[in-house]
Amino acid sequence: MIPLRDKYQAVPELLVDRWFNTPEPVTLAGLRGKVIVIEAFQMLCPGCVSHGLPQAIAIRETFPREEVEVIGIHTVFEHHAAMTPVSLEAFLHEYGIGFPVAVDRPGDGDIPETMKALGLRGTPSLVVLDRRGFMRINLFGRPSDMLVAAEIARLVFERGPTAGQVATAEPAHGASSPCLPEGCKTS
Amino acid sequence: MIPLRDKYQAVPELLVDRWFNTPEPVTLAGLRGKVIVIEAFQMLCPGCVSHGLPQAIAIRETFPREEVEVIGIHTVFEHHAAMTPVSLEAFLHEYGIGFPVAVDRPGDGDIPETMKALGLRGTPSLVVLDRRGFMRINLFGRPSDMLVAAEIARLVFERGPTAGQVATAEPAHGASSPCLPEGCKTS
Amino acid sequence: MIPLRDKYQAVPELLVDRWFNTPEPVTLAGLRGKVIVIEAFQMLCPGCVSHGLPQAIAIRETFPREEVEVIGIHTVFEHHAAMTPVSLEAFLHEYGIGFPVAVDRPGDGDIPETMKALGLRGTPSLVVLDRRGFMRINLFGRPSDMLVAAEIARLVFERGPTAGQVATAEPAHGASSPCLPEGCKTS
Amino acid sequence: MIPLRDKYQAVPELLVDRWFNTPEPVTLAGLRGKVIVIEAFQMLCPGCVSHGLPQAIAIRETFPREEVEVIGIHTVFEHHAAMTPVSLEAFLHEYGIGFPVAVDRPGDGDIPETMKALGLRGTPSLVVLDRRGFMRINLFGRPSDMLVAAEIARLVFERGPTAGQVATAEPAHGASSPCLPEGCKTS
């Protein structure tokens, strides 16, 4: 499997303007005790559409809901006028995305607040929190289903406070242009 | 190859509000003498993103520009507020679509004007006009690259006024729900 | 994840005529303590070539060798004259399969001995033994990478004798004809 | 489309030891008047299994039999003992290949006679003869369906003796090792 980080990263609560696919807002605190998978995406990011979101759907279909919760977060850091909540709502409908999706709160610059707080490098990013809420996986780009499932399962079967570490593989490297085949990077 | 229609269909000029990827508006009359491939799509139609638009790009890369011209038309018939020209512009940029793309003119109902005039059944639709401007191919859904290239080449190599016919295969059948794996159908 | 069997299945030692890709024969006893993944295949089974063997390669690349060992077994139950060890050796070379591969010992009828002993239903079959050597997973057909990795990881992180159960999902159902898209079934 | 050769290449009759999938031997002379597509392959060549043979099947399904005939030729130039007619017969059955397939006649060295006579560079190779029997296309590797269909259609719609030329694109370049992702090359 992939190398682990040498320490856990605490994660602040999500800063969200709006939710889709859920009757009431989701909070990380409310999901404590489960492994939490956060798919950060932009609706006009090709790598999110072809890889990140289908992978999030597959994670949700493979792992039981009592153990693993999947949520999405729309972290728009470019083309802000093109990816409004109105467009996102139609996108979620057409692509059949049924898990809760948050709209990340706009920040001072281009990068929205939660994206900044989690230290994401671009989209798609797959973030996984362990049962205590520590960020243990933060993968940018197109990690394989095999790798992602193995890492999530590692957290599912983790028992008690272990001297674990955090995965931080970067399967694909971006460049100056924001959107490449592997994903869209912040500059 | 696919069955042919028994008569040619004349096609009116495109009714367009705006063009992208071209310094000045494109007209069918201006392209007369070439085979014209028209890819009708919606930016939030999954079958357009995964099949129709990549196929249009491949057509443009395979056939010489002196013989075959590829243009796109954004025929929004659902989620109108979600697929505005602002969103379309960002979409074209992120998906690397370099051929001219028209914004179909909104009509009285949901169906825009050019989509109505061409008699399209949904998106993606691949329409091909022969060198004299007659519609000879009108395919809804996900026709194979093999089939599409064979049919376009047939029109490229057609010499003089022949007793040709028009293909009207429907590789995939839609249902009541607008967007299915094969594409989005008008109701 | 997939449902579990209600009891463990002990597995006899592999009955093998010959090994490839290993200087000396591999035994299940010699691998005790590790999770053992056994990919049962036939070189002329389309589902093995397109799905089972690439999946076995991905398993080997994802999980560390100290935890998970991958071996193949060529369980020929049809076209015996067409899939001899001479042909298999060239096949392994051309397809770049680097893990140890056993030739299952021919039995009285068409089904070879190890295939019979493990109760396999056809090819490809993915069998996984836990650290104590019990068969816990026996999947015929084309299970997803996501599912397979989650199940293997479950066994990797299993600690001590647990009241675990054995997965026995059948992602695809065969018919009378031996080789279908999902795999080749014994009759 | 792809550049054309500056002259036509006459092609000798196939030198064949045995045929499958046809009650009597096929000859190029007997098919004169049709466009003839010849898929040269080896059953243990990964690029043939994943690309060349599925493409040949798609050609056969797309073009009418009165215009285009598809035949295969098993041009074994490596691992001869592993790819005998007995193994080939099972391979054709399992992979559902229904068009006539010839076994190329072994030559003095590793390269069989027809492969030598046609000047093929490796497998898979797609050779296309025009209606008069001249070789007009000779593609090694993995040409796209779009390109291949356009080129075949060009020959289908060709009328009378034209000053045509022969395509000789090489979509993928091999190296010293015989089998690479794009195909297997003769040394």
The shape of chain A is globular
- Please name the fourth-level CATH homologous superfamily of chain A: Glutaredoxin
Count of spatially separate domains of chain A: 1
Low-confidence stretches of chain A: 160-177
CATH topology of chain A: Glutaredoxin
Q: How much helicity do the residues of chain A have? A: 25-40%
Largest interface: A-C, 22 and 22 residues
Instruction: Work out the radius of gyration of chain A.
Output: 15 Å
Mind describing the biggest β-sheet of chain A? 6 strands, mixed
CATH architecture of chain A: 3-Layer(aba) Sandwich
SS field, number of helical segments of chain A: 5
Residue fraction in strands of chain A: 15-25%
Average pLDDT of chain A, to the nearest integer? Answer: 88
Give the terminus-to-terminus CA distance of chain A.
29 Å
What is the number of E strands of chain A? Answer: 9
SSE string of chain A, helices as H and strands as E: EHEHEHEHEEEHEE
Walk me through the topology:
4 copies of one chain form a homotetramer.
Chain A: E1 16-20, H1 28-31, E2 35-41, H2 46-62, E3 68-74, H3 85-94, E4 101-104, H4 113-118, E5 122-123, E6 125-129, E7 135-140, H5 145-156, E8 179-180, E9 183-185
Parallel strand pairs in A: 2-3, 3-4
Antiparallel strand pairs in A: 1-4, 2-6, 5-9, 6-7, 8-9
